[in-house]
Give the backbone structure.
Amino acid sequence: MVSFTLPAIQDNPDGSWGPSPSHVPAQFRDIPYAPYSKSDKLGRVADWNDTDTSRGAGAGAATLGAATLQSGTGGGGGQRGNAGQGRFQGRNQREGQQPFGSGASNAFAYFHVEDEASFSLVDNKTGTAKRGGPLSFARGRGGASSRGGAIGGRGQFRGGRGGQGGGRWNGGGNMRGGRWQGGGRWDKQARLRESSVPISPNWKMLEEIEFSRLSKLRLDVDEPELLSAHGKLYPYDKTYDRVTTKTEKPLQIMDRLRYNPTTSDDPVIQQLAANNTAQIYTTDSILAMLMCAPRSVYSWDIVIVREGDKLFLDKRDGGPLDFLTVNENAMDPPLDTDKESINSAISLALEATYVNQNFLFQAVRESDQAMELGGPNPFHTPEDGDGSELASCGYRYRLFDLSVTEEEDVKIAVRTEVDAFIPGATEQFINIRALNEFDSRSQGAGGAPDWRTKLDAQRGAVVATEMKNNSCKLARWAVASMLSGAEVLKLGYISRANPRDNARHVVLSTSTLRPIDFANQLNISVANGWGIVRGIADVCLKLPDGKYVLVRDPNRPVMRLYAVPMNAFTGEDEEDGIPEDGDEETA
Protein backbone atom coordinates (compact mmCIF):
# COMPACT_ATOMS: atom_id res chain seq x y z
CA MET A 1 0.00 0.00 0.00
CA VAL A 2 1.29 3.44 -1.01
CA SER A 3 2.08 5.59 1.96
CA PHE A 4 0.84 9.18 2.18
CA THR A 5 3.00 11.91 3.69
CA LEU A 6 1.71 15.35 4.59
CA PRO A 7 3.61 18.20 2.93
CA ALA A 8 5.69 20.51 5.07
CA ILE A 9 3.88 23.66 6.21
CA GLN A 10 5.95 26.83 6.31
CA ASP A 11 4.51 28.79 9.20
CA ASN A 12 4.91 32.58 9.30
CA PRO A 13 5.33 33.57 12.95
CA ASP A 14 4.48 37.27 12.45
CA GLY A 15 1.10 36.37 10.91
CA SER A 16 1.58 38.46 7.76
CA TRP A 17 0.46 37.20 4.37
CA GLY A 18 3.30 35.92 2.24
CA PRO A 19 6.43 33.79 2.64
CA SER A 20 8.56 34.03 5.74
CA PRO A 21 12.10 35.26 5.02
CA SER A 22 13.60 32.28 6.82
CA HIS A 23 11.72 29.78 4.63
CA VAL A 24 12.37 31.31 1.23
CA PRO A 25 14.45 28.95 -0.93
CA ALA A 26 17.99 30.09 -1.51
CA GLN A 27 17.52 30.56 -5.25
CA PHE A 28 14.67 33.04 -4.63
CA ARG A 29 16.09 35.06 -1.74
CA ASP A 30 17.60 37.83 -3.93
CA ILE A 31 14.36 38.45 -5.84
CA PRO A 32 12.30 41.34 -4.38
CA TYR A 33 8.84 40.43 -3.22
CA ALA A 34 5.84 42.51 -4.32
CA PRO A 35 3.14 42.42 -1.59
CA TYR A 36 -0.43 41.69 -2.56
CA SER A 37 -3.82 41.25 -0.98
CA LYS A 38 -5.22 37.74 -0.64
CA SER A 39 -8.62 39.05 -1.78
CA ASP A 40 -7.20 40.10 -5.17
CA LYS A 41 -8.62 38.28 -8.17
CA LEU A 42 -6.70 37.34 -11.25
CA GLY A 43 -8.67 38.61 -14.22
CA ARG A 44 -6.40 37.46 -17.00
CA VAL A 45 -2.91 36.10 -17.44
CA ALA A 46 -1.86 38.47 -20.25
CA ASP A 47 -3.55 41.73 -21.26
CA TRP A 48 -2.45 43.20 -24.55
CA ASN A 49 -4.64 46.30 -24.18
CA ASP A 50 -3.20 49.46 -22.64
CA THR A 51 -5.44 49.23 -19.59
CA ASP A 52 -4.53 51.76 -16.91
CA THR A 53 -6.38 50.96 -13.72
CA SER A 54 -4.91 54.01 -12.05
CA ARG A 55 -7.33 56.18 -14.00
CA GLY A 56 -10.20 55.04 -11.84
CA ALA A 57 -9.50 57.73 -9.28
CA GLY A 58 -11.71 58.15 -6.29
CA ALA A 59 -13.91 61.06 -5.43
CA GLY A 60 -11.90 64.24 -5.26
CA ALA A 61 -12.50 67.95 -5.01
CA ALA A 62 -10.60 71.12 -5.70
CA THR A 63 -11.59 74.70 -5.14
CA LEU A 64 -11.30 77.51 -7.69
CA GLY A 65 -11.75 80.71 -5.71
CA ALA A 66 -15.08 80.88 -3.92
CA ALA A 67 -16.68 78.23 -6.13
CA THR A 68 -16.01 74.54 -5.65
CA LEU A 69 -14.92 72.32 -8.51
CA GLN A 70 -16.06 68.87 -7.50
CA SER A 71 -15.14 65.76 -9.38
CA GLY A 72 -17.56 62.89 -9.47
CA THR A 73 -17.38 59.46 -7.95
CA GLY A 74 -14.62 57.38 -9.45
CA GLY A 75 -15.59 54.14 -11.03
CA GLY A 76 -13.43 51.10 -11.49
CA GLY A 77 -10.54 52.05 -13.73
CA GLY A 78 -9.39 50.22 -16.76
CA GLN A 79 -11.32 48.84 -19.63
CA ARG A 80 -15.04 48.25 -19.22
CA GLY A 81 -15.90 44.63 -18.61
CA ASN A 82 -12.73 43.71 -16.69
CA ALA A 83 -13.93 41.65 -13.72
CA GLY A 84 -10.47 41.35 -12.20
CA GLN A 85 -7.94 43.69 -10.70
CA GLY A 86 -9.37 46.93 -12.10
CA ARG A 87 -12.83 46.33 -10.63
CA PHE A 88 -11.42 45.42 -7.23
CA GLN A 89 -9.23 48.53 -7.10
CA GLY A 90 -12.11 50.74 -8.22
CA ARG A 91 -14.31 49.35 -5.41
CA ASN A 92 -11.64 49.93 -2.79
CA GLN A 93 -11.06 53.50 -3.99
CA ARG A 94 -14.78 54.26 -3.84
CA GLU A 95 -14.72 53.04 -0.25
CA GLY A 96 -11.72 55.22 0.55
CA GLN A 97 -9.31 52.23 0.78
CA GLN A 98 -6.05 51.79 -1.04
CA PRO A 99 -5.35 48.29 -2.39
CA PHE A 100 -2.65 46.52 -0.43
CA GLY A 101 0.63 46.84 -2.26
CA SER A 102 -0.61 49.45 -4.74
CA GLY A 103 2.17 51.81 -3.80
CA ALA A 104 4.95 49.28 -4.30
CA SER A 105 6.99 49.32 -7.48
CA ASN A 106 6.58 46.36 -9.73
CA ALA A 107 9.97 44.70 -9.78
CA PHE A 108 8.72 42.09 -12.23
CA ALA A 109 7.66 44.62 -14.90
CA TYR A 110 9.15 44.00 -18.30
CA PHE A 111 10.61 47.02 -20.07
CA HIS A 112 11.04 46.46 -23.74
CA VAL A 113 13.54 48.86 -25.20
CA GLU A 114 15.26 47.10 -28.03
CA ASP A 115 12.10 45.32 -29.15
CA GLU A 116 10.46 48.52 -30.41
CA ALA A 117 12.47 48.50 -33.62
CA SER A 118 11.10 45.12 -34.66
CA PHE A 119 7.52 45.86 -33.63
CA SER A 120 4.92 46.07 -36.41
CA LEU A 121 1.20 46.72 -36.12
CA VAL A 122 -0.90 43.87 -37.48
CA ASP A 123 -4.42 45.00 -36.59
CA ASN A 124 -5.07 48.66 -37.47
CA LYS A 125 -8.63 48.77 -36.10
CA THR A 126 -9.35 51.34 -33.43
CA GLY A 127 -9.41 49.80 -29.98
CA THR A 128 -12.32 50.08 -27.59
CA ALA A 129 -12.45 53.47 -25.92
CA LYS A 130 -11.35 53.31 -22.32
CA ARG A 131 -13.48 54.82 -19.62
CA GLY A 132 -11.27 56.81 -17.27
CA GLY A 133 -11.97 58.18 -13.85
CA PRO A 134 -13.05 61.75 -13.08
CA LEU A 135 -10.74 64.57 -14.05
CA SER A 136 -8.76 66.31 -11.36
CA PHE A 137 -8.03 70.02 -11.29
CA ALA A 138 -4.49 70.93 -10.20
CA ARG A 139 -3.83 74.52 -9.28
CA GLY A 140 -0.54 76.28 -9.78
CA ARG A 141 2.23 75.64 -12.22
CA GLY A 142 2.17 72.21 -13.69
CA GLY A 143 -1.49 72.30 -14.67
CA ALA A 144 -4.00 69.50 -14.47
CA SER A 145 -4.01 65.84 -15.25
CA SER A 146 -5.46 64.85 -18.58
CA ARG A 147 -8.43 62.62 -19.21
CA GLY A 148 -7.79 58.90 -19.45
CA GLY A 149 -8.53 57.24 -22.74
CA ALA A 150 -8.06 58.52 -26.25
CA ILE A 151 -8.07 62.25 -26.92
CA GLY A 152 -10.51 63.32 -29.57
CA GLY A 153 -14.17 63.27 -30.28
CA ARG A 154 -16.57 66.10 -30.59
CA GLY A 155 -15.23 69.46 -29.49
CA GLN A 156 -11.56 68.47 -29.73
CA PHE A 157 -8.95 68.66 -32.45
CA ARG A 158 -11.12 70.47 -34.96
CA GLY A 159 -9.79 72.71 -37.65
CA GLY A 160 -10.29 76.39 -37.12
CA ARG A 161 -9.04 79.86 -37.71
CA GLY A 162 -5.29 79.91 -37.85
CA GLY A 163 -4.88 76.15 -38.18
CA GLN A 164 -2.28 74.81 -40.57
CA GLY A 165 -2.16 71.40 -42.12
CA GLY A 166 -3.26 68.27 -40.35
CA GLY A 167 -6.82 68.90 -41.39
CA ARG A 168 -7.22 66.35 -44.17
CA TRP A 169 -8.62 62.88 -43.80
CA ASN A 170 -7.05 59.87 -45.41
CA GLY A 171 -8.61 58.95 -48.68
CA GLY A 172 -9.48 60.47 -52.00
CA GLY A 173 -11.82 60.06 -54.91
CA ASN A 174 -15.28 61.47 -54.52
CA MET A 175 -15.43 60.84 -50.76
CA ARG A 176 -14.30 64.24 -49.59
CA GLY A 177 -12.42 64.28 -46.30
CA GLY A 178 -12.50 60.70 -45.12
CA ARG A 179 -11.56 57.06 -45.38
CA TRP A 180 -14.19 54.37 -44.98
CA GLN A 181 -13.16 51.75 -42.47
CA GLY A 182 -16.18 49.49 -42.71
CA GLY A 183 -18.87 48.82 -40.17
CA GLY A 184 -20.38 52.30 -40.59
CA ARG A 185 -17.32 54.12 -39.28
CA TRP A 186 -15.06 56.88 -40.61
CA ASP A 187 -11.39 57.08 -39.70
CA LYS A 188 -11.07 60.80 -38.99
CA GLN A 189 -7.70 62.34 -38.25
CA ALA A 190 -7.27 65.02 -35.63
CA ARG A 191 -6.94 68.63 -36.73
CA LEU A 192 -4.27 70.66 -35.05
CA ARG A 193 -5.00 74.35 -34.66
CA GLU A 194 -2.81 77.27 -33.67
CA SER A 195 -3.26 79.41 -30.61
CA SER A 196 -4.99 82.76 -31.03
CA VAL A 197 -1.89 84.43 -29.61
CA PRO A 198 1.70 83.12 -29.85
CA ILE A 199 2.83 81.80 -26.47
CA SER A 200 6.20 83.33 -25.67
CA PRO A 201 8.71 81.13 -23.81
CA ASN A 202 9.20 84.04 -21.40
CA TRP A 203 5.61 83.82 -20.20
CA LYS A 204 4.97 82.04 -16.93
CA MET A 205 1.96 79.75 -16.74
CA LEU A 206 0.08 80.23 -13.47
CA GLU A 207 -3.10 78.19 -13.87
CA GLU A 208 -4.53 75.48 -16.11
CA ILE A 209 -8.30 75.12 -15.85
CA GLU A 210 -10.18 72.30 -17.55
CA PHE A 211 -13.63 72.99 -18.95
CA SER A 212 -15.02 69.86 -17.35
CA ARG A 213 -14.46 71.42 -13.93
CA LEU A 214 -16.19 74.66 -14.91
CA SER A 215 -19.52 72.90 -15.40
CA LYS A 216 -19.80 72.42 -11.62
CA LEU A 217 -19.75 76.16 -10.84
CA ARG A 218 -22.95 78.01 -9.92
CA LEU A 219 -23.65 81.56 -8.82
CA ASP A 220 -27.03 83.28 -8.77
CA VAL A 221 -26.83 87.01 -9.52
CA ASP A 222 -29.61 89.53 -8.84
CA GLU A 223 -30.90 92.13 -11.26
CA PRO A 224 -28.19 94.69 -12.10
CA GLU A 225 -28.10 98.40 -11.42
CA LEU A 226 -28.01 100.82 -14.36
CA LEU A 227 -25.12 103.24 -13.85
CA SER A 228 -25.43 105.35 -17.02
CA ALA A 229 -26.52 105.19 -20.66
CA HIS A 230 -25.02 106.84 -23.74
CA GLY A 231 -25.57 107.05 -27.48
CA LYS A 232 -28.69 107.09 -29.63
CA LEU A 233 -30.91 104.41 -31.12
CA TYR A 234 -33.02 104.30 -34.29
CA PRO A 235 -36.28 102.33 -34.50
CA TYR A 236 -36.26 98.87 -36.03
CA ASP A 237 -37.68 98.56 -39.56
CA LYS A 238 -40.56 96.12 -39.19
CA THR A 239 -40.71 95.47 -42.94
CA TYR A 240 -37.86 92.97 -42.46
CA ASP A 241 -40.21 90.79 -40.40
CA ARG A 242 -42.22 90.16 -43.59
CA VAL A 243 -39.29 89.21 -45.82
CA THR A 244 -39.43 85.66 -47.24
CA THR A 245 -37.33 83.67 -49.66
CA LYS A 246 -39.66 84.80 -52.46
CA THR A 247 -39.40 88.49 -51.50
CA GLU A 248 -35.72 88.60 -50.59
CA LYS A 249 -33.95 91.93 -50.17
CA PRO A 250 -30.38 92.68 -51.20
CA LEU A 251 -27.94 93.39 -48.38
CA GLN A 252 -26.70 96.95 -48.77
CA ILE A 253 -23.19 98.18 -48.05
CA MET A 254 -23.53 101.13 -45.68
CA ASP A 255 -20.77 103.33 -44.29
CA ARG A 256 -21.47 103.99 -40.62
CA LEU A 257 -19.35 104.60 -37.53
CA ARG A 258 -19.68 102.07 -34.73
CA TYR A 259 -17.19 102.00 -31.87
CA ASN A 260 -16.11 98.93 -29.94
CA PRO A 261 -13.04 99.89 -27.87
CA THR A 262 -11.57 97.63 -25.26
CA THR A 263 -12.35 98.03 -21.58
CA SER A 264 -9.28 100.00 -20.52
CA ASP A 265 -9.77 102.55 -23.33
CA ASP A 266 -13.35 103.36 -22.30
CA PRO A 267 -13.49 106.84 -20.69
CA VAL A 268 -16.71 106.00 -18.82
CA ILE A 269 -15.14 102.89 -17.28
CA GLN A 270 -12.06 104.91 -16.38
CA GLN A 271 -14.30 107.33 -14.49
CA LEU A 272 -16.13 104.47 -12.78
CA ALA A 273 -12.81 102.95 -11.73
CA ALA A 274 -11.65 106.30 -10.34
CA ASN A 275 -14.79 106.39 -8.19
CA ASN A 276 -14.23 102.78 -6.99
CA THR A 277 -17.62 101.74 -8.33
CA ALA A 278 -16.62 98.09 -8.73
CA GLN A 279 -13.67 95.72 -8.49
CA ILE A 280 -13.99 94.20 -12.00
CA TYR A 281 -14.54 96.03 -15.31
CA THR A 282 -15.27 94.54 -18.71
CA THR A 283 -17.59 94.60 -21.76
CA ASP A 284 -20.52 92.38 -22.66
CA SER A 285 -18.71 90.66 -25.56
CA ILE A 286 -15.73 89.71 -23.36
CA LEU A 287 -17.97 88.63 -20.49
CA ALA A 288 -20.21 86.56 -22.79
CA MET A 289 -17.16 84.77 -24.20
CA LEU A 290 -15.98 83.90 -20.70
CA MET A 291 -19.44 82.72 -19.61
CA CYS A 292 -19.76 80.51 -22.73
CA ALA A 293 -16.14 79.31 -22.65
CA PRO A 294 -16.97 75.56 -22.36
CA ARG A 295 -18.85 75.74 -25.69
CA SER A 296 -15.91 77.21 -27.60
CA VAL A 297 -13.75 75.15 -29.95
CA TYR A 298 -11.48 77.74 -31.54
CA SER A 299 -8.75 79.44 -29.54
CA TRP A 300 -9.33 82.90 -28.02
CA ASP A 301 -7.64 85.08 -25.42
CA ILE A 302 -8.54 87.73 -22.85
CA VAL A 303 -6.01 90.22 -21.49
CA ILE A 304 -6.32 90.79 -17.73
CA VAL A 305 -4.76 93.85 -16.06
CA ARG A 306 -4.49 93.96 -12.27
CA GLU A 307 -4.18 97.48 -10.83
CA GLY A 308 -4.43 97.70 -7.08
CA ASP A 309 -7.66 96.00 -6.05
CA LYS A 310 -9.20 96.27 -9.55
CA LEU A 311 -9.33 93.95 -12.54
CA PHE A 312 -9.73 95.05 -16.16
CA LEU A 313 -10.70 92.37 -18.68
CA ASP A 314 -9.58 93.52 -22.16
CA LYS A 315 -9.57 92.23 -25.70
CA ARG A 316 -6.83 92.60 -28.25
CA ASP A 317 -7.62 94.85 -31.21
CA GLY A 318 -7.96 92.59 -34.23
CA GLY A 319 -8.10 89.53 -31.99
CA PRO A 320 -10.60 86.66 -32.15
CA LEU A 321 -13.20 88.53 -30.08
CA ASP A 322 -13.55 91.11 -32.87
CA PHE A 323 -14.75 88.49 -35.36
CA LEU A 324 -17.57 85.95 -35.58
CA THR A 325 -16.93 82.29 -36.20
CA VAL A 326 -18.87 80.15 -38.69
CA ASN A 327 -19.80 76.53 -37.94
CA GLU A 328 -17.32 76.40 -35.08
CA ASN A 329 -19.18 73.58 -33.36
CA ALA A 330 -19.87 71.51 -36.48
CA MET A 331 -18.63 67.93 -36.60
CA ASP A 332 -16.59 68.87 -39.68
CA PRO A 333 -15.90 72.64 -39.46
CA PRO A 334 -14.38 74.69 -42.30
CA LEU A 335 -10.72 74.08 -43.00
CA ASP A 336 -7.88 76.56 -43.26
CA THR A 337 -5.59 74.53 -45.45
CA ASP A 338 -6.40 76.95 -48.28
CA LYS A 339 -6.63 80.35 -46.64
CA GLU A 340 -7.32 82.06 -49.98
CA SER A 341 -10.53 80.09 -50.42
CA ILE A 342 -13.76 82.00 -49.78
CA ASN A 343 -14.97 79.04 -47.71
CA SER A 344 -11.98 78.83 -45.36
CA ALA A 345 -12.48 79.50 -41.67
CA ILE A 346 -10.73 82.89 -41.80
CA SER A 347 -12.61 84.07 -44.90
CA LEU A 348 -15.94 82.97 -43.43
CA ALA A 349 -15.19 84.80 -40.16
CA LEU A 350 -14.52 88.03 -42.05
CA GLU A 351 -17.64 87.51 -44.14
CA ALA A 352 -19.83 86.84 -41.08
CA THR A 353 -18.57 89.99 -39.33
CA TYR A 354 -19.17 92.06 -42.47
CA VAL A 355 -22.69 90.64 -42.92
CA ASN A 356 -23.66 91.31 -39.29
CA GLN A 357 -22.53 94.92 -39.36
CA ASN A 358 -24.32 95.78 -42.62
CA PHE A 359 -27.54 94.00 -41.65
CA LEU A 360 -27.59 95.96 -38.39
CA PHE A 361 -27.12 99.26 -40.27
CA GLN A 362 -29.79 98.36 -42.82
CA ALA A 363 -32.50 97.05 -40.48
CA VAL A 364 -33.19 100.42 -38.79
CA ARG A 365 -35.07 103.49 -40.02
CA GLU A 366 -32.68 106.41 -39.78
CA SER A 367 -35.30 108.78 -41.19
CA ASP A 368 -37.38 108.49 -38.00
CA GLN A 369 -36.78 110.20 -34.70
CA ALA A 370 -33.85 108.69 -32.79
CA MET A 371 -33.95 107.84 -29.09
CA GLU A 372 -31.33 109.60 -26.97
CA LEU A 373 -30.25 107.39 -24.09
CA GLY A 374 -28.90 110.19 -21.92
CA GLY A 375 -25.30 111.06 -22.55
CA PRO A 376 -23.65 111.43 -25.98
CA ASN A 377 -21.57 108.72 -27.58
CA PRO A 378 -18.51 108.56 -25.28
CA PHE A 379 -16.16 107.52 -28.10
CA HIS A 380 -17.16 110.01 -30.80
CA THR A 381 -14.97 113.09 -31.19
CA PRO A 382 -15.39 116.18 -33.38
CA GLU A 383 -12.58 114.94 -35.59
CA ASP A 384 -14.75 111.95 -36.55
CA GLY A 385 -17.46 114.14 -38.09
CA ASP A 386 -20.71 115.81 -37.11
CA GLY A 387 -22.32 112.58 -35.97
CA SER A 388 -24.54 112.07 -39.02
CA GLU A 389 -22.71 108.83 -39.85
CA LEU A 390 -22.99 107.31 -36.40
CA ALA A 391 -24.63 103.89 -36.40
CA SER A 392 -27.57 103.07 -34.19
CA CYS A 393 -25.95 101.95 -30.95
CA GLY A 394 -26.59 102.51 -27.27
CA TYR A 395 -24.10 101.85 -24.46
CA ARG A 396 -25.60 100.85 -21.12
CA TYR A 397 -23.22 100.56 -18.16
CA ARG A 398 -24.64 98.09 -15.66
CA LEU A 399 -23.39 96.95 -12.26
CA PHE A 400 -23.73 93.28 -11.24
CA ASP A 401 -23.18 92.02 -7.69
CA LEU A 402 -21.11 88.82 -7.59
CA SER A 403 -20.91 88.61 -3.79
CA VAL A 404 -21.42 85.17 -2.32
CA THR A 405 -21.92 86.26 1.28
CA GLU A 406 -23.18 89.47 2.85
CA GLU A 407 -19.76 90.21 4.32
CA GLU A 408 -17.95 90.48 1.00
CA ASP A 409 -18.42 93.07 -1.72
CA VAL A 410 -17.48 91.88 -5.23
CA LYS A 411 -19.06 93.84 -8.06
CA ILE A 412 -18.48 93.95 -11.81
CA ALA A 413 -19.22 96.94 -14.06
CA VAL A 414 -20.08 95.92 -17.62
CA ARG A 415 -20.45 98.05 -20.74
CA THR A 416 -23.34 96.50 -22.63
CA GLU A 417 -24.70 97.40 -26.07
CA VAL A 418 -28.17 97.57 -27.60
CA ASP A 419 -28.68 98.06 -31.33
CA ALA A 420 -32.16 99.57 -31.80
CA PHE A 421 -35.60 99.90 -30.22
CA ILE A 422 -39.14 98.93 -31.11
CA PRO A 423 -41.46 101.95 -30.83
CA GLY A 424 -44.70 101.61 -28.94
CA ALA A 425 -46.37 102.31 -25.64
CA THR A 426 -43.43 100.64 -23.88
CA GLU A 427 -40.31 100.95 -25.98
CA GLN A 428 -38.23 97.78 -26.08
CA PHE A 429 -34.48 97.54 -26.60
CA ILE A 430 -33.44 94.99 -29.21
CA ASN A 431 -30.24 93.45 -30.51
CA ILE A 432 -29.85 92.62 -34.19
CA ARG A 433 -27.71 89.69 -35.35
CA ALA A 434 -27.40 87.72 -38.58
CA LEU A 435 -26.65 84.12 -39.54
CA ASN A 436 -25.01 83.69 -42.92
CA GLU A 437 -25.23 80.81 -45.38
CA PHE A 438 -22.23 80.35 -47.64
CA ASP A 439 -22.57 77.10 -49.61
CA SER A 440 -24.59 74.14 -48.37
CA ARG A 441 -22.63 71.76 -50.64
CA SER A 442 -19.12 72.82 -49.62
CA GLN A 443 -16.88 71.26 -47.02
CA GLY A 444 -17.62 72.69 -43.57
CA ALA A 445 -21.32 73.39 -44.20
CA GLY A 446 -22.18 71.06 -41.32
CA GLY A 447 -25.09 69.40 -43.07
CA ALA A 448 -27.07 72.64 -43.31
CA PRO A 449 -30.08 72.47 -45.66
CA ASP A 450 -30.54 74.87 -48.55
CA TRP A 451 -32.16 77.93 -46.99
CA ARG A 452 -33.95 79.03 -50.14
CA THR A 453 -35.92 75.77 -50.27
CA LYS A 454 -36.27 74.98 -46.55
CA LEU A 455 -36.39 78.28 -44.67
CA ASP A 456 -40.07 79.07 -45.25
CA ALA A 457 -41.48 75.55 -45.00
CA GLN A 458 -39.04 73.93 -42.52
CA ARG A 459 -37.57 76.75 -40.47
CA GLY A 460 -37.29 74.50 -37.42
CA ALA A 461 -34.83 72.24 -39.22
CA VAL A 462 -32.74 75.23 -40.28
CA VAL A 463 -32.68 76.67 -36.75
CA ALA A 464 -31.84 73.29 -35.21
CA THR A 465 -28.88 72.87 -37.57
CA GLU A 466 -27.59 76.34 -36.77
CA MET A 467 -27.94 75.71 -33.04
CA LYS A 468 -25.81 72.60 -33.48
CA ASN A 469 -23.15 74.08 -35.77
CA ASN A 470 -22.91 77.52 -34.11
CA SER A 471 -23.67 76.70 -30.49
CA CYS A 472 -20.95 78.97 -29.08
CA LYS A 473 -21.78 81.97 -31.27
CA LEU A 474 -25.51 81.79 -30.61
CA ALA A 475 -24.91 81.33 -26.88
CA ARG A 476 -22.74 84.45 -26.82
CA TRP A 477 -25.47 86.44 -28.58
CA ALA A 478 -28.13 85.27 -26.14
CA VAL A 479 -25.97 85.97 -23.07
CA ALA A 480 -24.89 89.41 -24.35
CA SER A 481 -28.54 90.34 -24.96
CA MET A 482 -29.47 89.32 -21.42
CA LEU A 483 -26.55 91.28 -20.00
CA SER A 484 -27.64 94.44 -21.84
CA GLY A 485 -31.27 94.08 -20.83
CA ALA A 486 -32.54 93.76 -24.41
CA GLU A 487 -36.06 92.35 -24.50
CA VAL A 488 -35.91 91.14 -28.11
CA LEU A 489 -33.28 89.51 -30.32
CA LYS A 490 -33.79 89.90 -34.07
CA LEU A 491 -32.04 87.14 -36.01
CA GLY A 492 -31.59 87.64 -39.74
CA TYR A 493 -30.89 84.90 -42.29
CA ILE A 494 -28.44 86.16 -44.90
CA SER A 495 -27.30 84.11 -47.87
CA ARG A 496 -24.94 84.70 -50.76
CA ALA A 497 -26.54 85.83 -53.97
CA ASN A 498 -24.22 83.33 -55.64
CA PRO A 499 -22.50 80.57 -53.63
CA ARG A 500 -19.21 81.37 -55.40
CA ASP A 501 -19.34 85.10 -54.60
CA ASN A 502 -18.83 86.22 -50.99
CA ALA A 503 -19.30 89.93 -51.75
CA ARG A 504 -23.03 90.02 -52.60
CA HIS A 505 -25.71 88.86 -50.17
CA VAL A 506 -29.48 88.86 -49.80
CA VAL A 507 -31.77 88.88 -46.76
CA LEU A 508 -34.02 85.81 -46.85
CA SER A 509 -35.91 86.09 -43.56
CA THR A 510 -35.89 87.38 -40.00
CA SER A 511 -36.83 85.73 -36.69
CA THR A 512 -37.96 87.40 -33.48
CA LEU A 513 -36.71 85.78 -30.29
CA ARG A 514 -36.73 86.51 -26.59
CA PRO A 515 -33.17 86.18 -25.25
CA ILE A 516 -34.28 84.26 -22.14
CA ASP A 517 -36.34 81.76 -24.15
CA PHE A 518 -33.56 81.42 -26.72
CA ALA A 519 -31.06 80.72 -23.93
CA ASN A 520 -33.30 77.96 -22.62
CA GLN A 521 -33.48 76.40 -26.09
CA LEU A 522 -29.68 76.45 -26.24
CA ASN A 523 -29.51 74.89 -22.75
CA ILE A 524 -27.56 77.85 -21.38
CA SER A 525 -27.11 78.08 -17.62
CA VAL A 526 -26.60 81.73 -16.71
CA ALA A 527 -25.81 80.72 -13.12
CA ASN A 528 -23.03 78.51 -14.40
CA GLY A 529 -21.68 81.39 -16.49
CA TRP A 530 -21.58 83.70 -13.48
CA GLY A 531 -19.87 80.94 -11.49
CA ILE A 532 -17.13 80.78 -14.14
CA VAL A 533 -16.67 84.55 -14.00
CA ARG A 534 -16.48 84.59 -10.21
CA GLY A 535 -14.06 81.67 -10.12
CA ILE A 536 -11.68 83.30 -12.61
CA ALA A 537 -11.99 86.63 -10.78
CA ASP A 538 -11.07 85.04 -7.46
CA VAL A 539 -7.94 83.56 -8.97
CA CYS A 540 -6.90 86.87 -10.57
CA LEU A 541 -7.67 88.99 -7.51
CA LYS A 542 -5.08 87.00 -5.58
CA LEU A 543 -2.35 87.83 -8.10
CA PRO A 544 0.04 90.78 -7.74
CA ASP A 545 -0.29 93.87 -9.89
CA GLY A 546 0.63 93.21 -13.50
CA LYS A 547 -0.66 92.00 -16.85
CA TYR A 548 -1.92 88.51 -17.56
CA VAL A 549 -3.56 86.70 -20.44
CA LEU A 550 -6.14 83.93 -20.33
CA VAL A 551 -5.80 81.71 -23.41
CA ARG A 552 -8.13 78.99 -24.61
CA ASP A 553 -5.97 76.06 -25.70
CA PRO A 554 -6.39 75.45 -29.45
CA ASN A 555 -6.47 71.66 -29.21
CA ARG A 556 -7.62 70.77 -25.70
CA PRO A 557 -10.66 71.92 -23.69
CA VAL A 558 -8.62 73.89 -21.16
CA MET A 559 -7.81 77.51 -20.37
CA ARG A 560 -4.38 78.67 -19.26
CA LEU A 561 -3.49 81.81 -17.35
CA TYR A 562 -0.09 83.34 -18.13
CA ALA A 563 1.83 86.20 -16.56
CA VAL A 564 3.10 88.45 -19.36
CA PRO A 565 5.27 91.61 -19.48
CA MET A 566 3.52 94.93 -19.06
CA ASN A 567 4.41 95.95 -22.63
CA ALA A 568 2.87 92.81 -24.14
CA PHE A 569 0.24 93.31 -26.89
CA THR A 570 1.11 96.98 -27.30
CA GLY A 571 3.41 96.74 -30.32
CA GLU A 572 3.77 93.06 -31.15
CA ASP A 573 5.27 92.13 -34.47
CA GLU A 574 2.69 90.90 -36.98
CA GLU A 575 4.75 87.90 -37.98
CA ASP A 576 5.92 86.31 -34.76
CA GLY A 577 3.94 88.17 -32.10
CA ILE A 578 7.04 89.15 -30.08
CA PRO A 579 6.65 92.54 -28.34
CA GLU A 580 8.96 95.25 -29.59
CA ASP A 581 11.43 96.89 -27.25
CA GLY A 582 10.51 100.24 -25.81
CA ASP A 583 6.75 99.78 -26.00
CA GLU A 584 4.75 101.22 -23.16
CA GLU A 585 1.59 99.98 -21.59
CA THR A 586 -1.59 101.44 -23.04
CA ALA A 587 -4.01 99.96 -20.51
User: Anything to note?
Assistant: DSSP finds ten helices and 17 strands in the chain. The longest strand covers residues 501-513.
